[in-house]
Every structure is written in structure tokens, then in C-alpha cells.
Write a structure and sequence with these properties.
Layout lengths: L1 H8 L1 H6 L27 E8 L9 E11 L4 E12 L2 E15 L5 E16 L17 E16 L3 E8 L10 H4 L6 E8 L1 E2 L4 E12 L4 E11 L3 E11 L15 E9 L4 E10 L10 E9 L14
Antiparallel strand pairs: 1-2, 1-15, 2-3, 3-4, 4-5, 5-6, 6-7, 7-8, 8-10, 9-10, 10-11, 11-12, 12-13, 13-14, 14-15
């Protein structure tokens, strides 16, 4: 059965990289850091749909909706995150509430401390499996699901031209995962370290280099190197290189090129309130000959019109 071959081929990634990845996290840090909530200093809603390895049966499809706003003159942030992630016969659904508190550390620098909490549901539909052995006791019958609590925490430091963040995900909940065959993943800690800057190249062009390092037990350390250009304070164009390397003894002994990819990213402020983004990921690994590439679309909306004339616009 092809789906089972798919799971076997990518089990190392599914098991350890349980949390879905996004190429456009650089425009919405709430996907990787609860300390980001309220950073934009305005109410903001974003929806993202990612079709991973399009055309490959059983490949991941992820849909998210996030919303956050600030209060107390920007010193507090509140957020909501909803996620649905499908891989073959499995689906993971997560709902989180987020709170952050921002401490002013300088005239234009702030440190946000955030925490999010909620629950995740793992579901597997045994009717979508087509095993060689119909009496295999290890395969589920019908639809089975389990729930786990979930908690994440993060720090997010920023100035008008620089940001850095560190966060930890899946801090609770693993002990209740009695059926890891349903979740198809270990509920391990995930760590994210990120930083970036905004450099002015001319009156109408800005350049934003950034990086993200992702670490989880049992998988190679993953990193993203990003470069984005901002034109006329309206249009973002750039690219992201994603790969991995083995730093620790408990990293998997696998082919370190199996998750290498290049993403081309564009985002435009269609109006003062509406932003639209698209990312196209092309594989630089064993899948590149099969053209199973990825597509990601995002739509964001400011509840109050964004003013590009602000002294400190939120570009991160």
C-alpha cells in the first residue's frame, strides 16, 4: 500500500518533526513563538494553507487560522491559533490561547514573554488503510482518536530594525499519549531559535535577512536561511533555503539531505488592511525528480488599517 510506503520513507521526519512547517512564518511569528502575540500593535488575523509535496498520495496538508491583538498601550498581547494537519489517514487538530507581556528594555527595544495553552486531537481513520494482512492487530479499525493538553512558551526581543526569539513547544502532554500509533509522532519538546534584521538599501528598498533553527530530539537539526527584499513598503520578494545538519548524538543516522528545499516567497500589501502571500517550495532531495513540490498561500487582514507612515512600522 503506497501510503504505508510513504510513512515508512518519511517516518523519521513525521516522528520527530511533528509540528508542521511553514515557509511564511517570517511574516507571522505566532506560528513559532507565543511571545510574538501583540507585536504588530494592532488586531491581525491570518489564514495559511500549505499543500506539501503536491501530487504525492497521503502528503501533508495544513490549514491554520491565527489572530492576535495588543492591549495596555502595546504592553500585553492576546492570541488564538487553530490548526488542522492531515497526513494520509491521520489528522491532527490543535487549538491554543496565547498571552504575552512586553517589557520595555530601552527607548525602542522590547522583550516579550509569552505562553500558550490548549489541546490537540490526534485521529487516524483505519478505513483509509489498505494493508496486505487484513488481520494485522497493529492496525486500527475505524476512526480512533486521542486528546492531549498542550503548552508552549517563548521570548521575543525586538527593536525597529532587529528581532530575536527563542521558544519551546509541546511542553506538556506526552505522558498521556498512550497510543502513539494514532498520533504517528512523539510529543517531544520542539525548540525554535530565530533572528533577523531590516537593512535599508535605498529610499525604496529594504533587505531583511533572517534565520530559523529548529531542534527536536531524534531528528537532525533543521535550519532556514531567509533573504527578503521590501519594495516601496508594499511588496516583499525573496527566498528561503531549508536544510539540516547533525549536531547531537541522539540525532537520527539518516541522509541529511532528505529535507533540503528552496522556497520562493512573495507577499504584497494589496490594501492598507489586506496582505496576500504565496510560497513555492522546490525539493533539492530524492523527491526533486518526481516534481512533488509544495505550495503555500496566506491571507492576512488588519482589523484597523495599517499606516505605512508610522515611525515604527511592524516589518517582522
Amino acid at each position: 500500500m503506497f501510503l504505508l510506503v510513504l510513512f515508512a520513507g518519511f517516518f523519521g521526519e513525521i516522528q520527530s518533526q511533528q509540528l508542521p512547517q511553514f515557509s511564511q512564518y517570517i511574516f507571522n511569528g505566532l506560528h513559532i513563538n507565543p511571545g510574538y502575540a501583540g507585536y504588530k500593535n494592532a488586531g491581525y488575523i491570518q489564514s495559511t494553507y500549505r499543500n506539501q509535496w503536491a501530487g504525492l498520495p497521503g502528503a501533508p496538508r495544513t490549514f491554520t487560522v491565527t489572530a492576535d491583538l495588543s492591549a495596555n498601550e502595546g504592553l500585553m498581547g492576546f492570541g488564538v491559533s487553530l490548526l488542522s494537519d492531515e497526513i494520509g489517514p491521520t489528522r491532527t487538530s490543535t487549538g491554543l490561547l496565547t498571552y504575552s507581556y512586553r517589557i520595555q528594555t530601552g527607548s525602542e527595544s522590547f522583550l516579550g514573554l509569552g505562553v500558550s495553552g490548549g489541546a490537540s486531537q490526534y485521529m487516524i481513520d483505519g478505513s483509509k488503510l489498505d494493508p496486505n494482512d487484513l488481520d494485522d492487530p497493529d492496525l486500527p479499525l475505524g476512526v480512533q482518536s486521542i486528546f492531549t493538553p498542550n503548552m508552549n512558551a517563548g521570548l521575543f526581543f525586538h527593536t525597529p530594525r532587529f528581532y530575536a526569539g527563542f521558544s519551546a513547544y509541546n511542553m506538556v502532554g506526552r505522558r498521556v499519549l498512550e497510543r502513539e500509533d494514532i498520533s504517528l509522532a512523539f510529543h517531544d519538546f520542539h525548540y525554535y531559535l530565530t533572528a533577523g534584521a531590516l537593512l535599508s538599501l535605498s529610499d525604496n528598498i529594504e533587505f531583511k535577512p533572517s534565520f530559523l533553527i529548529k531542534e527536536v530530539k531524534g531528528a537532525p537539526t533543521s535550519y532556514d536561511l531567509n533573504g527578503m527584499f521590501l519594495f516601496m513598503e508594499r511588496l516583499w520578494l525573496g527566498a528561503s533555503y531549508r536544510s539540516n545538519l547533525r549536531l547531537w548524538k541522539d540525532n537520527l543516522e539518516d541522509n541529511l539531505n532528505n529535507r533540503t528545499a528552496l522556497a520562493f516567497i512573495a507577499e504584497v500589501f494589496a490594501t492598507e488592511s489586506l496582505r496576500i502571500g504565496y510560497a513555492y517550495d522546490t525539493n533539492l532531495n530524492a523527491l526533486q525528480d518526481y516534481r512533488y513540490n509544495s505550495h503555500e498561500i496566506s491571507v492576512g487582514y488588519y482589523l484597523t488599517p495599517r499606516n505605512v507612515k508610522l515611525k515604527n512600522p511592524r516589518w517582522f
